[in-house]
What we know:
The structure is a single chain. By secondary structure, the chain is of the alpha+beta class. The protein has three domains: 5-281, alpha-galactosidase from lactobacil brevis (Beta-galactosidase, Chain A, domain 5, Distorted Sandwich); 294-377 and 415-586, TIM Barrel, CATH 3.20.20.70; 590-693, Golgi alpha-mannosidase II (Immunoglobulin-like), CATH 2.60.40.1180. The protein has eleven helices and 40 strands. The radius of gyration is 27 Å and the shape is globular.
Amino acid sequence: MDNDTVRLEGGNSSLLLQVRPYPRLLYWGPRLSAASSDDALTLAMPAMADQQVRPSATDGAGQWQSAAGLAIEGYRDRYSLAPLSFETLSYDCEDEQVRLCCVDRAAELELEIRLSLDAETGVLGLWQRLTNQGDVAFRVRRFGLVLPLAERAVEVMGFHGQWLQAFHTHRIQPQYGGYLQEYRHARQHDQFPGIVVGTAHFSEQHGEVWGAHLAWGGDHRLRVDTRADGRRFLQAEALHQQAELRLDPGKSCDTPWLYAAYGPHGLNTMSQSFHLYVRQHLGARRGAAQRPVQLNLTRSVWEAHSREELRRMAARAARLGIERFIMEIGRTCHARNPSQDATFELSDGQVSAKDVRQLIDYVQDHSMQFGIWLAPERLMADETCRKRHPEWVLRLSKDDVPEQQAQYVLNLTHSEAWNWLFEQMDRMLSDYPINFVKWEFCRELVQSSHEALAQAQMERATAMLDLLRTRHPETAFEPCVIGGGRIDYGLLRYIRRFWASSASDALDQQRIQYGLSYFFPPEVIGTHVGVTHTRARRQSLTISGLTALFGHMGLTFDMLALTREQQEAVARYVALYKQLRGLLHVGRSLRIETLDPVSSLAGGIFGVRHAVIGVAQLQPSRYAVNEVIRIPGLDPEQNYHIRVLDAPEEVDYQQVPWMKEPTARISGQWLMNAGLRLPTLPAETALLIEISVAE
Length: 695
């Protein structure tokens, strides 16, 4: 390797980076035994100008007038000067990361680039910092991250959704122009900041794919462009408000981290890289030994019960195997008297702080953790905080901000508001033995353009989470956004799980969890079994319980309203989760292809010697006899036993032969290539299968 080229190896991929005279990613794809700058000559494009001009991750508008390949846009206050091209001053390689210092002398800008390729997982990380070296302020219009794509990467899979139906996928093959996704609501649930590009008709097991995720919980822009000469680029950036990024002399701004992974054999290989990276580097292993079963007690439920009934509810939860008892308190912000400022209290209505303290003691006496569900960033319309401190509301100074669910947003960029909220949260977590906080944020930032605060609001919320986590390391935090949101790798450094969605319908949850699994391992996906209030459908606890099994299980029930039969079903699935979570939260999570994913979905968690397979029948099968699924992730040299762990009662009358022979020895090679015939399942039911090595 020459002095101007760096090669990184990781997982199943290789990366070849030209560092001088300017940074340029020459290759990112299947792992190579050797590669050099001479090898890269075979990919060079013919010269279109008087000299060879090659797109770089650092190109500005002075080099390219189209969006394809364009990474940086901006101007000076007194005159227009676009960044042209950043030349490398110096670089160093340490472990798995390359750090480059680049400069554009004409534009008086310095660019720091950090590019890494994790040795074990092959996940690529890219981050940049832009510094103004001039004497005049520089206004940044765009500051993005760019990755070149192989020309064979012709198909795009994006993510879309809405409330209760997030993380659905769509596909497009843009032959010319590009694919663009922009999101401006600071919640993400309808457009996740992730994208997958691959060879035509890639699937779970076939085709090459390149996946990318911007680790950023605010507004964002993702795009895939195809230039007229056939070259393809993937771009990702935080989407800023007009004039949001002003760099005074000597000041800097950073991009979020972009994480990307290459999958040589379909989407599952890409997901495995992401899952392992999350577990090893983003804190997902914290608490992995035991992800406790949670009971989410909504405000409407506990307010309808007396203190004695709440105790009975806690006692029943403990008997059914619940390990964490969570109360939604919303957020009570009031003044003790008109002369005092607002305070934060674990009390409201008819439940006093003393009652809450006694309930916590009662919960812990029953060997359960205690958690709270609250909305720290919310200001209610009639709250003391809003009335006494109108300047704390995130809004335009001269216009009244519209209410949403009778809520306003607390402006965390206001130092007094941030300090007040942190002090109240810190005091609450110090005064009460709280093991878990569900941090809810349920409205859009509709007027965050005031003083361009959209990015700063998210950064200040993250900073508070980080500080609270440091001061209270035994307390776990979970972001909760209505419909599912604030789900990204950036937050995973501070939290242990996400609230996947408010959807209580198992069919909706199946599709949401399926979409999340492309980037997230199951243990960080907060799932729950509860009353189906978001749909008119009535479903059995079989499909709800088995759906929640493939995540970090929780329940949302009025425990006192459960019938004896429902209690038995809850206890059964809680016990099944506890029995399997040692596998579920450390094993390889693989999606299994079905003939008609509209009608049925399948997936499994695979360990060294055994696996569990879940099949959900969402709609009636198109055929009288159900399909055969081919099962990946097994050892073709091993023989396996197969048995049913859980199934709807109706399946007893339509068994397939293997279900009657649990001691039969089936080869892994056969299951991977010929497959396993499923029983015919009624619509809205699920099946759980265990596959274990035959001794």
